[in-house]
Amino acid sequence: MYEITSLRQATTLGEEVVRRLRYLVITGRLAPGTHLVEDRLAREFDISRGPIRDALRKLEGEGLLESRRRGLFVVGLDESDVEELYTLRESLESLALRRSMERATPEDWATLQGPIDAMRDAADRGSAEDFASADLEFHSRFYELSGHRRLVSVWEQYRPTFSVLLSVTNAQDADLHPSAEAHVALLEGVRSGDVESTVRELSAHLLGAKNRMRAARAKGAH
Amino acid sequence: MYEITSLRQATTLGEEVVRRLRYLVITGRLAPGTHLVEDRLAREFDISRGPIRDALRKLEGEGLLESRRRGLFVVGLDESDVEELYTLRESLESLALRRSMERATPEDWATLQGPIDAMRDAADRGSAEDFASADLEFHSRFYELSGHRRLVSVWEQYRPTFSVLLSVTNAQDADLHPSAEAHVALLEGVRSGDVESTVRELSAHLLGAKNRMRAARAKGAH
DNA sequence: GTTTCGTTAACCGTCGACGGATATCGGTTA
DNA sequence: TAACCGATATCCGTCGACGGTTAACGAAAC
Question: Is B4 within a domain?
Fold first, then answer.
């Protein structure tokens, strides 16, 4: 049904199970509608049900699993889910950007250069996964700098989904450099201090990302 | 330290513990910074650690507890938290309102009349708790009608906090009728079909709610 | 063929216990 | 007095098991 290898060392077994299942669900290797049974998963991962329970609860919170009558079921990610993820994110990140532009100092913004360099480097090497990582790291700074704990919390809830999603779809892009440069433009906007204009730029940025993802997914094996 | 009575019948023990602790944390009976130890809680509630663990994880997700080095600690709700809760909500609910105005039918909007009647009734009786309940039920419809699963999910994550918070602060308001009528105005806006104007009205509505809450909390015992 | 009902199996909520990791505290040393 | 360090207690991650509840299945009745 799906491959179970070995559980790499993780802070906790549950966390590792979360990572595994998350990947399987988002990539569709675990078909939507699949019934996940605690007992069976425990046997397959060869651990007890405790950590499995923790993992399933977490994934439910991430919207990847759905609790129905008995047990949890896999919720696949189709086009409407991509739509949901990006509209929600646009809403959250706009608020984060507004707040961070009110609070952050030039030194704070300087920390965004690291992820940009990492993106360029990943683009040079053609590493889709590293690019996705740096990309999300860049955007995460907005949340951190917003000084809004709950905003950070909600973002972190969905960030792993974007991470897997981006890693997969980026792999189809021939050249990731344009995307890296788009972030440079975003950083310039932030530094200009023009909030409204930069928020619009962010919206456009995310709209573009959404469309690229839709295109990639329409073409890819789904 | 805090009173433990008996665990009323609930769908699950963990859920009941969640309700209890949530109330204690939000009302401040459980002081910010308090270290919650699984073993001790299990003994106090006279149940095993399993359901306690579930409860603590859930409350952490709601932002009421914070995971530090060892175990979970109570995060109090101060003025900045009220600020956070309402700014986040404004962001989410604006999106929900926009989407629901694009999708919902007149019959859908008709279902908002029930909560309004309930608010008026609760205002007549002076029941702060029932008013809060109907109030949130009214707003929840926006999320449901938005057809956006993740938006609903995030809202449901914070709704219980608003529920307790409103119940407590509403109890200080002499007359709840004005608040009920504000919702009527909101419903009229929705029916008018003018999205931008109604979104602005919602923002003003929530801003007013936030300020009333701040005033009530500044005056109340905190 | 369809519905009703009873039996069986599946599945989750809950429990109690173990062991390792970590903070705490007392004692020793510089 | 202050810093280091080791013994101790605390606390959480994990385990395996039990029992009640609910879904699934098949048999009996219409």
Answer: no
